[in-house]
Amino acid sequence: MCHLRSRWKIQAQSPSSTAARPLEGIDANGNGIRDDIEAFIDRSYSTETQRHAARQLAVNLQKTLLVNKADRAALKQVDMEAGRAVRCLSLRFGGSNGSKQPAAVSQELESVTANTRTGSRPTSPMARRWTAL
Hints:
Blueprint: H1 35-44, H2 48-66, H3 72-92, H4 102-113, H5 125-132
């Protein structure tokens, strides 16, 4: 089973405090996933195991956006967690029974996290990770 492990807690933000940082967004329950992305996951993926895998990636994507780029240890940790999240997606999605392919799920979550259209970021870090599998 995939595990959602997080040493980091992304604090909930009020709407006014996130106006200057739209990618940070609002995380009212403090689970590390923006509320809009959590709602997207809940309505987009049919099983709880798929939603869990998508949430694991969503936490990692949010950390990737917020990590201190000068902190090598933090960058390494985020990268290691990204590998786990990608592995979890590959176990829970696979195109069978009408489910999406894991790379498509990753691309969807990246797009909603970065507030971009699906397919507009073909060289994103997660896209490069999928090509390594």
